[in-house]
Amino acid sequence: MKVLYYPGCTLKTKARNLGDTAVESLALLDIELEELSRWNCCGAVHSLADDDLIHLVAPVRVLIRALEQGGGRLVTICSMCYNTLARANRVMRDDPEKRKTINLFMDEEPDYQGEVEVVHLLSMFRDEVGWDLLRERIKIPLKGLKIAPYYGCTLQRPREVGIEPVGRFDLMKHFIEALGAEAVSMTSADRCCGSYQILGNPEVAKDASSIILADAGKSGADALVLSCPLCEFNLDRNQGVLFEEGRISKVVPAFYFTQLLALALGVDPRRCHLELNSEASIGLLRDKGIIAS
Amino acid sequence: MNKAQTHPTNEKQNQKIATGDRAILPDGAKTVPIYVMGKRYEVPETLTIMKAMEFVGFKFIRGAGCRGGICGACSTVYRKAGDYKLHFGLACQTVVEPNMVLTQIPFYPANRAVYNIEEIEPTAESVYALYPELFRCVACNNCTKACPMDVEVMDYISAIKQGDLAKAAVLSFDCIQCGLCASRCMGELPQYHIAQLVRRIYGKYIQPRAEHLKKRVQEIDSGKYDGIVKALTEMELEELKRRYLESEREPNMALPGEWLPKDQEYL
Amino acid sequence: MTRISVKAGQRVFLDRLAKMSGQNVQQCFQCGICSGSCPMLENMDTHPRKIIRMAQFGMIEELEQANTFWICASCHACNVMCPRGVDLPRLMEALRLMTLRKNQNKVEPSRLPGEMIKEYPQIAMVSGFRKLTG
């Protein structure tokens, strides 16, 4: 099976541990992620003002590219890209007035009416691949690893684009279990990590991240699993800083769901870009015997 | 740019002047009305915008350079009668059209970062650090629409955001630094300066080196050609002319390696 | 029932707020679930519930001085829980835009340390600049 794929900017650089492991893992599941041949940044956040249509242009342009490349469906892996593309798509599908204005503005592009379906890879596992098949293909079960699903904001909110109803975290739980690990629940699974405030109000963002990590520590999880490069930065890469500043007392590394998938499918750990995660992540996998020390 | 003549040209003038560089109007040549900064002028229909402006009396002290479409000094913006669309061109390359309304934008302020190319780390992150406004791009595509060189500006900005400096360097190769992209940018990006930095990094650190060039430089350094160069510089002029006229020449369109000169001493 | 009356200047502001955000603030019955679900509450000088209350009364000055909408991370935790269907993140965005559209940035990209930009993922800059620069 071949599906059209939108990586997003960060997956090409800082979050290769998310993008590359997805492509490699899916190939092992007989799914070819075909990257859009031409694409721009989606804008990362949805425009929330009714008179601010210019910020819908970027995601809509991506959707037009997908349509041109024959995609009835566009797969995303980054949660923020998913959220931004899916919401822009809904505007183009459901709001005739905004659709008209945006199409008129983009006079160099063909008109778009929301034809493409935006899908997050996690939904694809649930709806198309299936947990049974996933379980069958696992070569190195992640036994002994306790993982807390971390959804963040953009996988579930707002409700109309949520991959799962608000407050339910079964999708990632089933995913974790299919990989042979133990799923641990925590109350902050959909609590905001601080998001873009790491740029505007870093202290505020660090407060937000610390609460989640403290909760993760209490839940008994060895690690978090997530799908957003901004969450990963705030919760994983920045964790050393939070620890040094005394904001957290226990280190709980985070992995992208595709990294854990790749490891479980037997992909060489050296190709899972663990060097891009926090230091604690490699140590944990070694301790659990998932990667050689 | 000075406006030496404030009156539109009259019929009498049109009859005596010529086209070409000196704008001599040939017999029977038609004139068309154009509007320069809102004022109407009658100009010969065959002229470029630059020549038409000089024809009616403008004198360029800025906004003109090579007159060959490569220096990027004469960026011009125009609209056509009854059309909302903005058009862009180089004044030295764009032929006038009846009722076009134009102005030149010889310069547009754009943030240019200071850096030492010798010390820069050849990564996308270095570009981000010098030009963080890069991330304010909203993909409106106004830059690409404005480019008189048909550069896919938005695409190279996208490539940089995606960390692909090689792609951006190639996509922006035809840029002549005219700045029209920056003049139209919603995110206030200096696209052309960013692209120049990327090409510099690419050229210095990323682009593969030509191995044969290195070899040839070594040959020159080793003195392989010293003798012949000395002989040529000391040669009588007549002998030099004779040799030049009799010299062998590679045929047009010869495929690489297909043709070799008879004298192969220095190959 | 008490009617909330607002003056002409306030009316212009409130109309603009309603138009930009697409929200009718009078729908809110002040239950406070928004404040209760807000993960950034600790750092806000004015709770989200109060922001709506101020909007209901047309308290323009107080609204403009609050740091609430600059601390908001658009996480939508409030909006999914609101029993009255008020989309509070949209209200916050409208309040941000009222400043940002005057060519005033909350974060100045040129003044951010280069080392920080090098370290942060692109997604942080893109989203941060979208929400905090005009």
**Structural class, from secondary structure content of chain B?**
alpha+beta
The multimeric state of the shown protein is heterotrimer
Low-confidence stretches of chain B are 1-10, 12-19
Q: Biggest chain pair contact, residues each? A: A-C, 47 and 40 residues
* Backbone structural class of chain A: alpha/beta
Helical fraction of chain B equals 25-40%
Which strand-content bin applies to the residues of chain B? 5-15%
CATH architecture of the largest domain in chain A: 3-Layer(aba) Sandwich
Brief sketch in words of this structure:
The complex is a heterotrimer of chains A (293), B (267) and C (134). Chain A has 293 residues and is an alpha/beta fold.
Verbal overview:
The complex is a heterotrimer of chains A (293), B (267) and C (134). Chain A is of the alpha/beta class and 293 residues long. Helix content of chain A is 45%, strand content 10%. In chain A, α1 packs across α12, α2 crosses α3 and α3 packs across α4. Helix content of chain B is 34%, strand content 12%. In chain B, strands 4-3-8-6-7 form a five-stranded mixed sheet, with helices on one face. A two-stranded antiparallel ribbon of chain B has the order 1-5. Chain C has two domains: 95 residues, Fumarate Reductase Iron-sulfur Protein, Chain B, domain 2 (Orthogonal Bundle), CATH 1.10.1060; 30 residues, no CATH class. The chains are: A alpha/beta (293), B alpha+beta (267), C mainly alpha (134). Chains A and C meet through α8, α9 and α10 of A and α1, α6, α7 and α9 of C.
From the structure above, extract its key features:
heterotrimer; B: 267 residues; alpha+beta; Ubiquitin-like (UB roll); Fumarate Reductase Iron-sulfur Protein, Chain B, domain 2; 2 domains; 5-stranded mixed sheet; two-stranded antiparallel sheet; 11 helices; disordered N terminus; C: 134 residues; mainly alpha; 55% helix
Could you give the topology of this structure?
The complex is a heterotrimer of chains A (about 290), B (about 270) and C (about 130).
Chain A: E1 2-6, H1 16-28, E2 32-35, H2 54-68, E3 73-76, H3 79-94, H4 96-105, E4 117-120, H5 121-129, H6 131-137, E5 146-149, H7 170-178, E6 182-183, H8 197-200, H9 202-219, E7 223-226, H10 229-237, H11 239-244, E8 254-256, H12 257-264, H13 279-287
Parallel strand pairs in A: 1-2, 1-3, 3-4, 5-6, 5-7, 7-8
Helix pairs in contact in A: 1-12, 2-3, 3-4
Chain B: E1 2-3, H1 11-16, E2 18-19, E3 31-36, E4 39-44, H2 49-55, E5 58-59, E6 75-79, E7 87-90, E8 101-104, H3 124-130, H4 142-146, H5 153-161, H6 165-171, H7 180-183, H8 191-206, H9 211-221, H10 226-234, H11 237-246
Helix pairs in contact in B: 5-6, 5-8, 6-8
Chain C: H1 8-21, H2 33-37, H3 48-57, H4 60-65, H5 68-71, H6 77-81, H7 88-100, H8 114-119, H9 122-132
Helix pairs in contact in C: 1-7
